[in-house]
Amino acid sequence: MIPYANVAQLRSGLDNGEFSAEELAYFYLSRIDAATDLNCFITVDQEGVIAAAKNADKAIAKKSVGPLTGIPIAHKDLFCTEGLLTSCASHMLNNFVAPYDATVVDRLRKAGAITLGKTNMDEFAMGSSNETSFYGAVKNPWDRTCVPGGSSGGSAAAIAAGLAAACTGSDTGGSIRQPASFCGVTGLKPTYGRVSRYGMIAFASSLDQGGPLARTASDAGTLLNAIEGYDPNDSTSAIADATDFRSASQPLKIGIPAQYWNDLSASLTKVLDEARLTLESLGHRFVPVDLPHTNASTAAYYVIAGAEASTNLSRYDGVRYGHRAASAESLENLYQVSRSEGFGSEVKRRILTGTYALSVGYYEAYYLKAQQIRRLIRQDFLDAFLQADVILTPVAPSTAFKRDELMEDPIMMYQQDIYTTPASLAGLPALSLPCGFSDRMPVGMQLIGPHFGEASLLKLGRQYQDETDWHALHPVYDDD
Amino acid sequence: MTEWEPVIGLEVHVQLATRSKIFSRAATTFGKYPNSNANAVDIALPGVLPVLNEEAVRMAIKFGLAIDAEIAPSCRFDRKNYFYPDLPKGYQISQLDQPIVGRGTLPIFLVDGSIREIGITRAHLEEDAGKSIHTEYEGLTGIDLNRAGTPLLEIVSEPELHSANEAAACFRELHSLVTALEICDGNLNEGSMRCDANISIRPRGSKILGQRTEIKNVNSFRFVEKALRYEIERQISVLESGGDVVLETRLYDSERDETRSMRSKESSDDYRYFPDPDLLPVDISDDLIESVRVTVPELPAEKRNRYIVELGLTNYEANRLIEDPKVSRYFDEAAQRSVDAKLAANWILGEISAALKRDEIDFAEVPISPGELGKLIQRIEDETISGKIAKSIFESLWKKEGSVDGIIESRGLQQLSNATELEKVVSQIIDDFPDQVRQFRDGKEKILGFFVGHVMKATAGRANPKQVNEILQRELRV
Asked: What residues in A contact B91, CB-CB < 8 Å?
């Protein structure tokens, strides 16, 4: 059994009787157990996995299989899972067992997937390094002194380390794409509204979007097909056709926005230039596009995301669930102590800045201004897509950095998101694909598509991955 | 001495009578076991999202159409942020600057019979909070989230009311309107309508508004009037003794009949309103508005006018009937059958009202159909029965002992109008009481009643009183 097999390979292995779902489940559980030092998981559902695998084997024997029957996957710990701890990697929800399944979890289960457990993340998805988790930092399987990226760091690292073939993640300003890039896996942030947010614990409602992380673009497409589609429980979910990514890619006009390339380091430019050559050899051509408001994006993003987060997190007050101060002298005090103890410092920072941005006297200068920038950025993209079918950019300004390197410098940390926040603000789909290495650490490229243009991104990704094997590389351990 | 003019504006919270909550599928039923009507969305569990109840939107539109207001082609929901234990999300979803209903007018009906048009500034949708229960648990507070998420329509009037009386009339009119529209059950005891009043006073003739106070949460017509009357006097005495009215929220204590300061508003709260990103702007199409428009019934003001002008009822009668749409609907149906609407009103406001009080039941449970009441009145009018007999039939109908005609038939209650038969009875009685006949003929005409009574007795009350009178007059004068 190959630990780094992708979903498609596992599917055929299961269907051809090469291994059973139960064997596969035990296999992953033992790998997870052996890799606890990576800290990818917050919860592993030992019993649930085996029970589900046995059921999957019965279904497979009866040839009544869904696309993911018997495939073990893991959920980022902000997707509510009935009966399992859903902590959002926060002390605040350290005791929260959800009484219901998120739509994404429910749909994957209905497609046959087995939930291995819940992956580590930045607390409330606030972070770009997976260092803000209440359960400790996640290590990058390629270099354990490095971060895996964030906030879906546990999911990306789990795939890179062969602990799961695919995972769910969520992306608010880059939280699927950047860890995918840092860990050498494929990650898709769908169009805002493509995937239901119901049961996905909110960070910033107008930006949050659940999506898949996997080894290949094809697997990401398989997972997307399972989770996408209108959900009456989410007013912002869209009615859209399913993503048909299985046909061949047409020759595309790929936009290159100078704003994303000008300041890129020489080493990353070199890797990405090679990717461009490969794409060119596949019949695509490049056109320059202009995204003039790019440099205002991260500032606008942090204002909007913080503002929304500051009120989304008001429900954690110690009254109904979650952490409650052991003793409080008054109601006010109960709020203060419960929240002071329950939230980590990055979460507090964002609640405070977000509260500030919404306050009387600052609302116009911050929140409204940021919304204006958001509209301009969206318009930039709409204009650019008149000239290009997709847009190619780097995912992040660097490869995985060392743990603790940026923790004391939030502004530098926030700059990690400069290439990912614009697509988030514009609500666009974006795919992060492994495209090489720099100093032995994975590098990703980002393909941004027009609204509901996931299919062309995934088709292009599949074609690229047919031509290259960056996505198939994995860290080598002695015992593999 | 200065003559003072009160300036009052109302903010009325109306609980909309939707089956489920405004943003969740939980039921809105009143009086259930604490938290049994609170689902994941109402409790604000992590990950849940609000989904707007279309019925609440339709009801708001219906109100807007009834006050001839502009319905916003697109409106928006905002978050109003503050911490409170019975506010599970830490914010209330409301509408700040894009309310669903814009400016409209409400005709209010004053005691002297005159009508005033009051401006309605706006009406917007929002969710109700839960309840904190402080009394039942020693040293602890209970939280009941059954009410959390109940749809509210907050109706804001212009500060155009100039007396406690007018304010109460306005609240009453809104009550009549929302119950007639069937968008609220109108149950004041259960908090289905709650009234806040902003009040200030100024020297009559002045255009400048005085400092206001806000009286919160007054839930009966009478208390609105009493609270404002008290508050007007209080503000006058503060100003006349050289003091200043302080901007504050006051509560009305009905037991002591006074308002008391609850909290100062000086440090104004910052609710950090912003558009709720979980809800998209609501586009309201003309088709939707038109589909609601056809459901708007005859409005209380129109009805009142019809009752008074067309049916000849008094102001008092019209108002009593209109107070409760169940009553006016009943009246309309009963009056359709009977020729005399006035009689129908008398029966409803008299007999039925008394019987309801006696049996301690609600109008909805009246055991007599409006059609039967109409029939009963018809039988009085066509002289099949007398008014007195009608009352005994009414009691039988109340006990569901049969139909009007059935009871008359089976008990032989038809009025005796046969002249020959009545003449026979009358002459028998004249023969029986020669002394009294003499008295009558000597000029003591009052004794006529004595004979009528005996005729009635002899006919078991069935004799047509008008005819009996005529025959007696004729026979006694011979």
From this structure: 311, 314
Domain end marker among B378, B395, B411: B411
Compute the half-sphere exposure of residue B110: CA atoms within 13 Å on the CB side of its CA.
Answer: 13
The amino acid present at A99, given as its one-letter code, is P
B240 and B352 in a common domain: no
Shared domain for B375 and B281, answered yes or no, is no
Number of domains in chain B: 3
Question: What sign results for the dihedral spanned by CA atoms A407, A412, A414, A419?
Answer: negative
> Cα–Cα distance between A461 and A457 in angstroms, integer?
6
Q: Please state, in angstroms and rounded to a whole number, the distance separating the CA atoms of residues B293 and A292.
A: 49
CA A168 to chain centre: 7
Q: Both B87 and B157 in a single domain? A: yes
Both tokens of A205, joined, read: 């409602």
The Cα B98–Cα B76 span in angstroms is 6
DSSP-derived letter for residue B280 is P
Residue B238 makes CB contacts below 8 A (sequence gap 6+) with B244, B245
Q: HSE (CB half, 13 Å, CA atoms) of A51?
A: 4
**Chain B residues within 8 A (CB-CB) of chain A?**
40, 43-52, 79, 81, 83, 85, 88-91, 143, 270, 272-274, 277-280
Domain that holds residue B429: 419-476
How far is Cα A386 from Cα A372, in angstroms, rounded to an integer?
22
Owning domain of residue A149? 1-480
Mutation target vs A (from B143, B268, B274; most A CBs, 10 A cutoff): B274
Taking only the tens place, the pLDDT of each residue in A275-288 is 999 999 999 999 99
Domains: count for chain A? 1
Dig out the tokens for B360 from the structure: 């301690």
B266 band by pLDDT with thresholds 50, 70 and 90: low
Write down the pLDDT at residue B437.
Answer: 86
Task: Provide CB contacts within 8 A for B450, sequence distance 6+.
Answer: B433, B436
* Distance between A198 CA and the closest CA of chain B, angstroms: 6
- Greater confidence (B268 vs A247) lies with A247
Q: Tell me the pLDDT band of B21, cut-offs 50, 70 and 90.
A: very high
Indicate if B253 and B316 belong to the same structural domain: no
**What's residue A78's pLDDT?**
98
Cβ contacts below 8 Å, chain A against chain B, sum to 97
Backbone angles phi, psi at A77, to 5 degrees: -75, 25
**Domain-ending residue, one of B390, B411, B432:** B411
For residues B156 and B24, membership in a common domain is answered with: yes
How do residues A56-71 score in pLDDT, each as one tens digit? Answer: 999 999 999 999 999 9
How confident is the prediction for chain B on average, in pLDDT?
Answer: 92
Q: What is the mean pLDDT of chain A?
A: 96
The nearest alpha carbon in chain A to B282 belongs to A235
- Hey, what are A469's tokens? 């094997």
**Are the CB atoms for B378 and B340 separated by under 8 Å?**
no
- CATH code of residue A463: 3.90.1300.10
Q: Please tell me what DSSP assigns to residue A85.
A: B
Residue with the larger pLDDT of the pair B475 and B188: B188
Extract the tokens encoding B144. 């009941």
**Nearest C-alpha neighbor of A126 from the set A91, A152, A96, A95:** A152
For B327-364, the pLDDT digits (tens) are 999 999 998 876 689 999 999 999 999 999 999 999 98
